[in-house]
Design brief:
With about 475 residues, the chain is of the alpha+beta class. It is built from 17 helices and eleven strands. The chain has helices at about 5-10, 35-40, 50-60, 125-140, 180-185, 190-205, 215-235, 285-305, 310-320, 325-340, 350-360, 365-375, 380-385, 385-400, 405-415, 425-435, 440-450, and strands at about 15-20, 30-35, 70, 75, 80-85, 90-95, 100-105, 145-160, 160-170, 240, 260. It has a five-stranded antiparallel beta sheet with strand order 2-8-9-7-6. Strands 1-3 form a two-stranded antiparallel sheet. The two termini are about 40 Å apart. It binds adenosine monophosphate and magnesium ion. Adenosine monophosphate binds next to loops.
């Protein structure tokens, strides 16, 4: 029995995908293989034979009986509507797990009908980066696509200069994006949108099937998932970097690790992406952009919400209007948890805001601040010499002990605040070693980031001035 399923191609219209086998590569070598994830998905047995595993995960061999495809999608990139699609990714098929179907996709596996001028390839460096950061995000307890393997090839990839090529096996609850709905609505054929809606609900949110207005119900739940996701990003200082609607997964997973980065010194306008010159995707602008992306999703769904255009818009707006307040509530609850406030009240919002203002003013390290607030340290001692901070600190001490014990407050902080995150300088250092042939530092960092809430981990320090010149890039 074929172990890969193909429900996407079987149930969806041909306009939404193209059959496409991966392009073979030269001298593939398995550099990373995520045994634990393979076990968890129940596919380890299919990759036990190393030669077969290398064949499948390099794209040099097709899983017998499988029917690989590239998915079509559109998207608003930096606000502009564009026809896109998997230009360098191929869906091998889906795996049935006890949590539902999961996609197995090769990224960097050659050109597809959607590649346009792209070479369909990825650098070894950028696929290692995605592996490291996506696995770290998972360990931080944030929904995300996962990484099953990285294969290196000697086929050259040109990105201003010559690089080694890499192929990442990405695992996702699905690769259905807001942009997939935009494609079905605006570039597909009559009926495509409805079929996509039915497929998506059946796959991700079967409980919505019997709702009187499934399209509206899907908008509501996707909004809820985006809210939770962005709150989580803000909790750990993650900046996605390119929140275009094609990079918004309907499943609520973090997807597309291009120019993402982690914030060190707290500042709401922190940006690392080289192309985000306006700060559209800056750290604290992420909720606004999520809201904008959701309005694009709502717009794509309109004909399914109500046949009458005005009625459809009114219903969609009623749902969307709940986002700002819902987000704010969830955000302050999360920030209250970071501060260890077990019994939160409305005025804690002022405490959060005034604290963040001080952090921004003094460019205090976001992660280390919350760690030291709980367990003490030089950073906190130094801050407490400042009158403004000491005033804040005594208010905080009262708030966290409101109707609870110190132990409970500390426990809440320990589970909300990571000790270790993928610091930009650490990520760059281990990637540099990796491309020079030494994977040891990469493995060490990967292991540390696998238990980011562990108090035994050393506190991370950022080399002075590192962030000032740090830039990240799309589609590298
Ligand atoms: P991303 O910025 O990774 O979300 O990519 C945006 C679009 O460009 C998607 O349609 C990608 O499939 C496509 N793309 C990115 N890199 C390449 C490449 N090297 N070759 C072909 N298409 C690409
Ligand atoms: Mg993308």
């Amino acid at each position: 029995m074929a172990w890969l399923k193909h429900t996407y191609a079987a149930q969806l219209p041909a306009s939404l995908y193209s059959e496409q086998v991966p392009e073979p590569v030269g001298n593939p070598a398995m550099v990373l293989y995520n045994e634990a994830l393979a076990e968890d998905m129940g596919v380890a047995g299919h990759f036990e034979d190393e030669q077969k595993a290398l064949g499948y995960l390099s794209g040099n061999e097709t899983v017998p009986g499988s029917q690989p495809i590239a998915q079509a999608y559109a998207g608003h990139q930096f606000g502009h509507f564009t026809r896109l699609g998997d230009g360098r990714a191929i869906l091998l098929g889906e795996v049935k797990t006890n949590r539902g179907l999961y996609d197995l996709q090769l990224k960097g596996s050659g050109q597809t009908p959607y590649s346009r001028r792209g070479d369909g390839r990825a650098t070894f460096y950028s696929m290692l980066r995605e592996y490291l950061i996506s696995e770290a995000i998972h360990a931080l307890h944030i929904p995300t696509t996962r990484s099953l393997a990285v294969v290196k090839t000697t086929d050259p990839v040109y990105r201003e200069q010559l690089h080694e090529g890499g192929i990442l096996t990405r695992v996702a609850a699905s690769h259905i994006r807001v942009g997939t709905f935009e494609y079905a609505r605006f570039l597909g054929e009559a009926g495509d949108l409805e079929t996509l809606l039915e497929y998506t609900i059946e796959r991700h949110y079967p409980a919505l099937m019997d709702r009187p207005n499934p399209a509206l119900a899907l908008l509501e739940i996707v909004m809820q998932k985006q809210k939770e996701l962005i709150v989580n990003w803000l909790r750990v200082g993650f900046i996605h970097g390119v929140m275009n609607t094609d990079n918004v997964a309907i499943s609520g997973e973090t997807i597309d690790y291009g120019p993402c980065a982690f914030m060190n010194a707290y500042h709401p306008r922190t940006v690392f992406s080289s192309i985000d010159t306006q700060g559209r995707y800056a750290f604290a602008n992420q909720p606004n952009i999520a809201y904008w992306n959701l309005s694009v999703f709502a717009n794509a769904l309109l004909p399914l919400i109500d046949e009458d255009e005005a009625a459809a818009s009114a219903k969609a707006e009623e749902v969307l209007d709940q986002f700002p307040e819902g987000f704010t509530k969830a955000y302050f609850e999360m920030m209250g948890n970071k501060l260890g406030i077990v019994n939160q009240v409305e005025e804690d919002r002022d405490l959060v805001n005034s604290g963040l203002k001080l952090l921004a003013e003094w460019r205090v390290d976001y992660t280390n601040f919350f760690t030291e607030l709980r367990r003490g340290g030089d950073l906190i001692n130094k801050l407490r010499e400042e009158v403004a901070f000491e005033n804040w600190y005594s208010k905080w001490e009262k708030a966290r002990l409101r109707g609870t014990s110190l132990a409970e407050s500390e426990a809440l902080m320990a589970q909300t605040n990571p000790v270790a995150i993928p610091r930009n300088h650490l990520v760059e250092a281990v990637l540099q070693s990796a491309v020079s042939g030494d994977m040891q530092p990469f493995h060490k960092l990967l292991e540390e980031l696998a238990s980011p809430y562990d108090d035994a981990l050393p506190q991370q320090t950022v080399p002075a001035g590192f962030d000032a010149g740090y830039q990240t890039f799309c589609g590298t």
